[in-house]
Design a protein that fits this description.
Layout (H helix, E strand, L loop, with lengths): L8 H12 L15 H21 L5 H15 L2 H9 L6 H21 L17 H8 L18
């Protein structure tokens, strides 16, 4: 992905990960999953998380993570997304919460319903050479409204 042009999904992903010193191998495997199918869904959810940051144009800040969790909640219905989406805003200032609920939760709700397929089932690794705007169009993805510059940094993505 490092060698791909910035306008490709892979190039944008490599840039996102590199600027933040993130590695896809940093994600720990899911715990407390007795069912292999549940463990697979939990693992894939973790694997695609950073891909979604790139596709939706969301930074790995507390505010950006919460917007992504609202999308995940609407799109997947996974319980962990609900917990984060509902209780995570307590970490924001009142001004940030207002922006989250006025601009970003409505966008995330609409986007979560608008994707043309399950975003968990996309084989993103095969899309690296695709133009990022073309991929967004194909998947029914729109970039999130700007978050502003006052969001605190997330402790981990």
């Amino acid at each position: 992905a490092w060698e791909l042009p910035k306008h490709t999904f892979g190039g944008a992903y490599a840039d996102f990960m590199g600027r933040r010193h993130f590695s896809p191998d940093d994600r720990p495997p899911p715990r407390f999953r007795d069912c292999p199918d549940e463990a697979f869904v939990a693992q894939r959810s973790r694997e695609v998380h950073d891909f979604w940051h790139v596709l939706f144009g969301l930074p790995p800040t507390v505010h950006g993570e919460l917007v992504l969790k609202w999308f995940e909640l609407v799109h997947t219905g996974l319980p962990v997304a609900a917990f984060s989406a509902l209780f995570g805003p307590l970490r924001l200032s009142s001004k940030q919460r207002k922006r989250l609920y006025d601009a970003h939760v409505p966008w995330a709700t609409k986007q979560g319903r608008a994707c043309t397929q399950s975003m968990l089932s996309v084989y993103y690794e095969r899309c690296f050479e695709e133009d990022i705007d073309g991929l967004r169009k194909r998947l029914g993805v729109t970039v999130a409204p700007p978050l502003g510059t006052s969001s605190p940094k997330a402790s981990s993505a």
